[in-house]
Request: fold
Amino acid sequence: MSKMKLLTKERIEEKVLRIPEAGCWIWMGSSQVRGYGEIISNNRKHLAHRASYEAFVGKIPEGMYVCHACDNVACVNPNHLFLGTQKQNLQDMAAKGRSTRGSKNPQSKLTEMDVYLIKRFFFTKEDVTDLDIAKTYNVSRSLIQLIRKGKRWNHVR
Reply:
């Protein structure tokens, strides 16, 4: 039987660069495109910050997220990690201004002003269709409909 590589404290610590000024332990192993570290154990990829939490703090309850107090996704310092639900993680992200909501999203074709006009100005024009608005902004008709129904860009009033 082959010896399993366990996600031990030592194995995690050998792949970090400690930044004393910030207190972060930057993951120097492989990482995902978004910057989250990855570690392989038993032929499975694991997120490094979750592996660090389990190795140094303890088991992660089912459905819980391991969040970064330092907002550095490459950090695996257990002192910078805390448990939260998905909702709490998203609220923490929004409270710290890290959300890519609205025009902060690099794929967005609209600005908050565009959406404001779509909701306020175009909504009152009976001769302008959702398709006309979509063509004006180079977006889909379904997006315009979702905006008007309040299901997208609902942070713009």
